[in-house]
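User: Here's a protein and a ligand (S-adenosyl-L-homocysteine). What would the complex look like?
Assistant: Let me lay out the input and then the predicted complex.
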Amino acid sequence: MYPVIFVSLGPGEPELITLKGLKALQTADCIFCPETQTKAGQCSSRAADILLRLDIPSDSILRFALPMSKLREKAWEAYNQVYAEAASRCKDGQRVCIVAEGDAGFCSSIHYIYEKLRADGIPVEHIAGIPAFIAAGARGGLHVASQEERLIVIPGTTTAEEIEKLINEKSAIVIMKLSQCTDEVHRCIRLHPEYSYHYFENVGTPDEQYISDPQQIETIRFPYFSLLIIRKDSF
Ligand code: SAH
């Protein structure tokens, strides 16, 4: 039995996948790939866009709908179906991959399927990938965490006061899922214009944006694929 391989695709730019990940995709019989429905009713899948740009044959790509609602029941249902299908194909001797953007084990709910397969004694493997915040740091030419500095990653649930506290403790901060804390980030910019703010949107795609002017960041309603790195440059 081949292991079910969780392939990390990197943040969006196809060349930012690892060689190991690419080889696993090229030899796969089937690749499970999440897609989401936009408010306008269309399907979009950044993961599928990456696969197609890597010349992975579209007939090996099995898209599944991943509801993005805050109520996670629907997502768990979708994951349970992928789990059952992946387990059955694996037992039939197929080479099965499951993909995720960035790193598949970093803020990635698809890891739920990995844990479920492992608990059932089905062999699994996770191929590491470049998370979006590392690609963002490179894009902005940043030293994301230097020397004694700590790096704290926050999943979009934060306040201006918490940011202030962490910065005072000499931490650099990465805020993911930024759309969940737009108002608090805007408030923090007004309270602390002296921090350095690095805003990234759609890193590694044609719509990429990098903005480091706090006044400009304060006017943006952050989309889902955005993150912010906050530092205090001279401690
Ligand atoms: N597994 C991913 C993280 C998924 S959580 C990783 O390793 O990076 C989803 C969050 O990641 C988004 O809300 C956003 O904050 C961030 N993100 C993912 N891709 C991004 C991109 N291309 N540009 C900016 N932020 C991105």
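Summary: Residues 11-12, 100-103, 106-108, 131-132, 176-178, 200-204, 224-227 surround S-adenosyl-L-homocysteine (CB under 6 Å).
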